[in-house]
Amino acid sequence: MAKRQNDMAQLAKLTRAAFQVRQAKLQKKAEAEARLQHEIDKLDAARETVLKTLSLEDGRTPAQITSHAVWLTWANRQRAGLNMALASARAAAMQEREAAKIAFGRDQVAQKLPAKK
Q: How far lies 13's CA from each of 2, 36, 59, 96, 117, in Å?
């Protein structure tokens, strides 16, 4: 009987460790997703600022407007790349979230096993 309780306690420790590993992985994936979203938000804010200045009426020269247009083209390509990276990060986070759910369930069951007699 003592061996069984010892085995159950070991199982509880192992499942807790596995769950904590999954939590840490999920946290890293969520942070990566948040960083990418922040980069997109910064790029969007800069883009809005540039779009407001694209007018000859504000005293801008055609060369300045052309340079802004070139920057906007670059910004659009950057945003597309960031969106692709964000989609990948979100997919990875979803997969990790599912794995964390399973690890959480196993941990919850294993924590209750030693209490049963």
A: 17, 35, 70, 21, 18
Is residue 75 within 8 A of residue 44, CB to CB? The reply is no
Please give the domain boundaries of the chain with CATH numbers for all domains: 2-115 (1.10.287.1700)
With tokens 């989609």, the residue in question is 87
Flag whether the pTM goes above 0.85. no
**pLDDT the model gives residue 115:** 65
Closest CA to 103 of 4, 14, 9: 14
Question: What parts of the chain have a pLDDT lower than 70?
Answer: 1, 56, 114-117
pLDDT value of residue 117: 55
11, 113 in Cβ contact below 8 A? yes
CA pair distance 84, 91, nearest whole angstrom: 11
